[in-house]
Design a protein that fits this description.
This protein has helices at about 5-10, 10-20, 20-30, 50-60, 95-100, 110, 115-125, 140-145, 145-155, 165-175, 190-215, 220-225, 235-250, 250-265, 270-275, 280-290, 325, 360-380; strands at about 35, 45-50, 65, 130, 135-140, 225-230, 230, 295-300, 305-310, 310-315, 320, 380-385, 390, 400, 405-410. It has about 400 residues and is an alpha+beta fold. It has a single domain, classed as Orthogonal Bundle (Cytochrome p450). The strands form 5 sheets. Strands 1-2-11-8-3 form a 5-stranded mixed beta sheet, with helices on both faces. The longest helix is centred in the middle third of the chain and has 25 residues, at about 190-215. It starts with a helix and ends with a strand. Residues about 75-80 have low confidence and may be disordered. The chain binds protoporphyrin IX containing FE. Protoporphyrin IX containing FE (HEM) binds near residues 244, 253 and 363. The site of protoporphyrin IX containing FE has 27 residues, from helix 9, helix 13, helix 14 and helix 18.
């Protein structure tokens, strides 16, 4: 393993230019699954690439903490200068107290109540695509996959429809600040992110006041009126909570949607299978999650000396969990490098596992099921109409643009 290859694993330019380095991760899993990476001028870290090790680490939040540092990347500044106090970087017991405030709203049962709305939102989005006759051409990311997650979480939060576009604009800048395309003119990535966050905070501060006066049946009303140990949430924690809910499911679900359609374009036999048997939409969604694995890495920090995979790791050293690598681990998945819509079981960990298991996992699943069901029903055929452009980030793998050409079914 040359130093260059190792350093590249956290280099956002690598992800923009080539997508995920699955060949390097496969070598690491085989030859050195708990691998020390030295980075001159940057903090060193341990690259954890096996499914088994990531699961074991994630299941011990008492020993491996999220708090000290959640992401390590060469996009220095993103996340570090402006720490927010949110679930993802809290540890037990505080983490549980905060998570349980809204967790009931994210169960499959609770989400059944909004399934109809999500279906309506997906339908509206697809109806807006420009189609001449039965033929259409569009940037799938801009016109479909980017809109669905933000509109759904906006609906859950209780943000009025007239403000959805503004919310979309701010979240793009918050998440994609490391990519020149989303940067505000004349501003650095950090400045771009900071000004977008300030706008979001102002907006949610006003909405909080409104919902305190007149609570409704939405997430902002719940959080605005919640108490921990008898006290309302401090304003910074409250704003961080909204921010997390707005951004966490955005780029991730967007990329699963785009990457999922890309996988189906590349494997037309798999698309045919789902067309013939719509019962395959659920396993398709799980395979899309495994295949796209939108979160590239999160960190854990041991609070005592530990041994993992025969390596001695000292308290305070950084562990970088590479989820996409775990999701191609040949010890867990047959033919891991094949996209198979009938894969069962599918023990992917795209949503993480354990204490911090993605709060929005069932929201994401619902969105993906709804959108892929519509796509499979409506599309007669679909192909790429130009190059796929990827996001410059080593935290969330994203597709920025994916031009497609398609024909719709006569009945649709
Ligand atoms: C395909 C889409 C998604 C993927 C791949 C994904 C992935 C993840 C991962 C890997 C984690 C962290 C696990 C860990 O540290 O162990 C996480 C946490 C989280 N996600 Fe998601 N996520 C997705 C969609 C969503 C959506 C739609 C929402 C909100 C509506 C959401 C909200 C959250 C929150 C609030 C956390 C923090 C949970 C905690 O720390 O307790 N995510 N997600």
């Amino acid at each position: 393993m040359t130093a260059i290859v190792e350093q590249d694993l956290l280099n956002p330019d690598l992800y923009a230019a080539h997508g995920y380095p699955h060949d390097v991760w496969a070598r690491l899993r085989r030859e050195d699954p708990v691998h020390f990476v030295e980075r001159p001028g940057h903090e060193s870290y341990w690259a954890i690439t096996r499914h088994e090790d990531i699961v074991a680490i994630s299941r011990r939040p008492d020993r491996f903490e999220n708090g000290p540092r959640l992401v390590m990347s060469l996009e220095q500044g993103i996340g570090d200068e402006f720490p927010v106090r949110m679930l993802l970087n809290m540890d037990p017991p505080e983490h549980h107290a905060f998570r349980s405030l809204v967790s009931k709203r994210f169960t499959p049962r609770a989400l059944r109540q909004i399934a109809g709305q999500v279906d309506g939102i997906a339908s509206d989005i697809l109806d807006r695509i420009d189609i001449r006759g039965s033929l259409g051409e569009t940037d799938f990311v801009e016109s479909v996959s980017a809109l669905l997650p933000i509109w759904v979480i906006a609906e859950m939060l209780g943000v009025p429809r007239s403000d959805w576009e503004r919310l979309f604009h701010w979240t793009n800048r918050t998440i994609g600040a490391g990519d020149p395309e989303y940067r505000e003119e004349g501003k650095t990535p950090v400045e771009t992110m900071q000004s977008a966050r300030i706008s979001l905070f102002h907006y949610f501060n006003d909405l909080t006041e409104e919902r305190r006066k007149e609570p409704r049946d939405d997430l902002v009303s719940i959080l605005a009126n919640s108490r921990i140990d008898g006290q309302p949430l401090p304003v910074f924690e409250l704003m961080s909570y909204y921010l997390l809910l707005v951004v966490a499911g955005n780029e991730t679900t967007r990329n699963a949607t785009s990457g999922g359609l890309l996988a189906l374009i590349e494997t037309p036999d798999q698309l045919d299978l789902v067309r013939r048997d719509p019962g395959l939409v659920k396993p398709l969604v799980e395979e899309v999650l495994r295949w796209t694995s939108p979160v590239i890495h999160f960190c854990r920090t041991p609070n005592e000396d530990v041994e993992i995979g025969g390596k001695k790791i000292r308290a305070g050293e950084r562990l970088v969990l590479f989820y996409p690598s775990a999701n191609r681990d040949e010890a867990v998945f047959d033919e891991p490098d094949r996209f198979r819509v009938e894969r069962r079981p599918n023990r992917h960990i795209a949503f993480g596992i354990g204490e911090h298991f993605c709060l929005g996992a069932h929201v994401a699943r619902l969105e993906l099921e709804v959108i892929f069901r519509h796509l499979v029903e409506r599309l007669e055929w679909v192909e790429l109409a130009g190059p796929v452009e990827r996001l410059r980030s080593s935290v969330v793998g994203g597709i920025k643009h994916m031009p497609i050409r398609f024909g719709v079914r006569a009945a649709a």
